[in-house]
Amino acid sequence: MSSEYLQGxxxxxxxxxxxxxxxxxxxxxxxxxxxxxxIDKKFDLYILGVNEDRFRPAFSGCKDAPDTVRKELYSLIKxxxxxxxxxxxNILPGASLSDTYFALTQTLAxxxxxxxxxxxIGGSQDLIAAQYQAFQGINSNxxxxxxxxxxxxxxxxxxxxxxYLPNIISHEPDYLFNLTQVGYQGYYVExxxxxxFEKMNFDMIRLGSLRGNIxxxxxxLRDAQMLAFSLQAIRGSDAMGQIKPSPNGLTGEEACQLxxxxxxGNDLRCAGFFDLNPKEDKNGASAxxxxxxxxxxxxGLTARRPDYPIAENKDYLIYRMIxxxxxxxxxxxxxxxxxxxxxEIPYPHERSKxxxxxxxxxxxxxxxxxxxNEIPDRWIKTFQKLV
Length: 387
Known about the structure:
Distance between the termini: 38 Å
CATH class of the largest domain: Alpha Beta
Shape: globular
Number of domains: 2
Strand content: 15-25%
CATH superfamily of the largest domain: Ureohydrolase domain
Number of helices: 12
Structural class: alpha/beta
Helix content: 25-40%
Largest sheet: 10 strands, mixed
């Protein structure tokens, strides 16, 4: 694992943290980069900051987010189950934006290859594309969850570095299996974006549909490898430290619940948090909220119990039913250990060389939909992606 792009926290910063935190805080579960990365030890979790904000003039100030969040994060009490954490420090701005993206990709990739987990603290949202590119050659069927109030996919236009979604979707080689956009607000999304998501069988989950149903996001996070979370998905009253805070958005509690689900996910390897601007965070509440979101991710990580239904496993209840307009039997699994639901998707006849079934996470709501003699949308979209 190369350390050529990293700059560790200053000795003075670490001493200040040590003098201001509780003896049971996360600070004392963390080792800090001091010029080299231990090669004889694999940590449960790595933390990496990126001091970059040149994407647009409006993002000026976002480069200071990583260290601002650290001051709040390391003061929080560690979860009951201890984890080994290594703080890699920060990637400093390169000579150009593309240099910073390259440094981020080159730093993340070796950590992801060893199947470790990384918390990435930006910086501005353009870093999301580089976060995704770090998975190239590691995952051939990437599942990505993005949390953002806005979504822009103009596939008919030339892709330029002005929006991260087109850069992810059009990336070559193509290793994207599913993209889920969470918490979008309809008045920010053009019709072409809806059409593009529909055509590609990707998922869009509107802010309003999450109200009172935040648990419905859990199946999407259960087998995602990457989470990218823009602070702009959170309403301004809960997070003022952002560009043009909106009166609508996720609440702080919903954001924390979502990140805990991400930490509990079976396969999630990198969670990135972007668009905090300390210059706009007058009372520091936004930095504290982001620190608490990361704490909940870590808490979810300590509760991670990877599971996957296997035939005849006594830990799963199996439900089978026939839907009238489908020639296939629908099969659901429910874990008796954690109440998680799963659903079988048959491989299409065109890919009959595959044996068995493709099993995807789902929710109790999907099961109820099938009981009402309807095919769940999740089943349809997954089946179409397998064609």
